[in-house]
Amino acid sequence: MILKIRYEPEELTLLRFLHGRMRLSTKDYSHFLNLEKGFSGKKEFDELLESP
Fold first, then answer.
1. Is residue 12 within 8 Å of residue 38, measured between CB atoms?
2. Among 15, 49, 18, 17, which residue's Cα sits nearest to residue 35?
3. 0.85 exceeded by pTM
């Protein structure tokens, strides 16, 4: 049972838009990938908790 909806962090949304429009520095790109992996992992964990 999910008690509240998980929203995408604002920083991830911002970096996703910037990545589409420009080349991110190596540090920013690495941070972007870590945020992507972390958020997708949290979503997968939520789905595991929801399944019977």
1. no
2. 15
3. no
Distance separating alpha carbons of residues 45 and 33, to the nearest angstrom: 18
Domain extent, residue 37, equals 10-17+25-50
Number of domains in the chain: 1
Picking from 51, 52, 44, 50, the residue whose alpha carbon sits closest to that of residue 1 is 50
In sequence order, what E strands does 1-52 have?
Answer: none
Residues 1-39 have pLDDT tens digits of 667 888 999 999 999 999 999 999 999 999 999 999 999
Q: Within a domain: residue 3?
A: no
Tell me the C-alpha distance between 11 and 1, whole Å. Answer: 27
Q: Give the SS3 label for residue 25.
A: coil
